[in-house]
Amino acid sequence: MIDGFRDAFRLPDLKRRILFVIGALFIYRLGAHIPTPGIDSEAMSRLFAQGGVLGFLDLFAGGALRRFSIFALGVAPYINSSIVMQLLVVIFPALEKMQKEGEEGRKKITQYTRYGTIFFALVQAIGMTTWLRNLGIFSGGLMSMVIVVATVTTGSIVVMWLGEVMSDHGIGNGISLLIYAGIVARLPEAIVQTFKLVSLGEMNIVVLILALVVMVFVIAGCVLLQEGQRRLPVQYAKRMVGNKVYGGQSTFIPLKVNTSGVIPIIFASSVLLFPYTLASFFKGSFADGLRWAFSPTSPVYMVLYVLMIVFFSYFYTAVVFNPTELSNNMKKYGGFILGIRPGKPTTDYIERVMNRITLGGAVALAIIALIPTFMSGVMKINTFYFGGTAVLIVVGVALDTIHQVEGQMLMRHYEGILKRRNKSGGLL
User: What DSSP state is assigned to residue 35?
Assistant: First the structure.
């Protein structure tokens, strides 16, 4: 691993991309510590000390919500907008056609997603400010409220911009890396608080050891889930092109068990947090009941959470994976799956296998995502924030980023080989 990092920094372009990501993450973490004017920070700390859904919300904001900083909303508005836009693309043929128009169509979809981010950021900022005002944490007038809403909304737009420039000029998915940074930033605090509880006798050392063992198994399960794949054997028939024979070899199609990665977890969490934000607009028993129903410890939330993880697993897999296109490409180059006829039977077979392994991956995702509730309810670990959802996101984003770095290094080495062959008078 150390050799890999050293090799990565020896390549100027890859080094520049990595340093760009580090600089963008520094800006994001700096913004997470800049407080929004008019908010009582001490009252916010006391409110978050009560736990519940607030700690879960703050997990994805990397501590920014606890301080109600200028980046308090984090990436939630952008994720909500992305979910709505992907659903609209499936529902409306005009948007689907626009997406298939190439680079120009994708730019329009991206622009619509940005407009949606502004809308969701504005709604969530108003909801959060109204809720804090009802609790007495924010006591400003109408103009002060406008300033707070404008500040938090602008901060969300800056976070969206940081994520996009990281994806374009850095390594990995920018939005996922921002979530990753927010979770990792909470690790030292969680470790210190856990050891304080042990030293004060509020947590049994046996419970702590058992929790660490569960964490190790969760991390191992996350790695297996992210790297697991079903390999379909493919045989290519021999064919003559001029005087040369092509094909006649055996290979395989790797179908990932978890094609969607951490997307279902992030999407499901963001969607279920939106009703909680809307409930902040209102007072009364109905609003209180709605907030309870969408808190992470309620049975309603857990059932909806599992169902939405399964739904988004299938939805995102259907968006990024096309069995018909794969089958047609195999048929075009003389490939076939052993025992399956080319054409529609191959398409149906691939789709059937993909549906089965996607279900297994989605169920595994849901089980890992519910680990924090298990640890909180059974082991009474209320301050152990680094639960299954966070572990899955951290492991998934880390593996994806490492794979992209390895791909960039392999591409650079391959280009270097071609250049050396060209200079030495080879065929190239």
Answer: B
With contact defined as beta carbons under 8 Å apart, do 24 and 71 qualify?
Answer: no
User: Which is nearest to 389 in space by CA: 8, 55, 51, 7?
Assistant: 55
Token representation of residue 368:
């890992």
Token readout for 106 is 């994708």
Q: Which of 52, 81, 48, 83 is closest to 64 using CA atoms?
A: 48
Backbone angles phi, psi at 236, to 5 degrees: -105, 130
Q: List b or e across 177-195, with b for residues whose CB sees 16 or more CB atoms inside 10 angstroms.
A: bbbbbbbbbbeeebeeebe
User: What SS3 state is found at 197?
Assistant: helix
In tens, the pLDDT along 268-289 reads 877 787 777 677 667 777 777 8
Could you tell me which residues come within 8 angstroms of residue 171 by beta carbon, excluding any fewer than 6 positions away?
A: 14, 17, 18, 21, 401, 404, 405, 408
Task: Write the CA distances from 304 to 51, 146, 298, 352, integer angstroms.
Answer: 21, 34, 10, 25
Q: Are 375 and 319 spatial neighbours (Cβ–Cβ below 8 Å)?
A: no
Strands 250-256 and 229-236: antiparallel
Per-residue tokens: 236 = 């290519």
Q: How many CB atoms lie within 10 A of CB 336?
A: 18
**Which of 7-11, 147-151, 262-266 has the largest mean confidence?**
147-151
Query: How does pLDDT run across 107-155, given as a tens digit for each residue?
Result: 888 899 999 999 999 988 888 888 777 777 777 778 888 888 899 999 9
Q: Calculate the alpha carbon distances from 83 to 72, 110, 206, 403 in Å.
A: 20, 12, 42, 25
* Rounded CA separation 251/248 (Å): 10
Distance, in Å, from the CA atom of 16 to the CA atom of 166, rounded to the nearest integer, reads: 12
- 65 CA to centre of own chain: 19
Q: Distance (Å, rounded) from C-alpha 61 to C-alpha 38?
A: 20
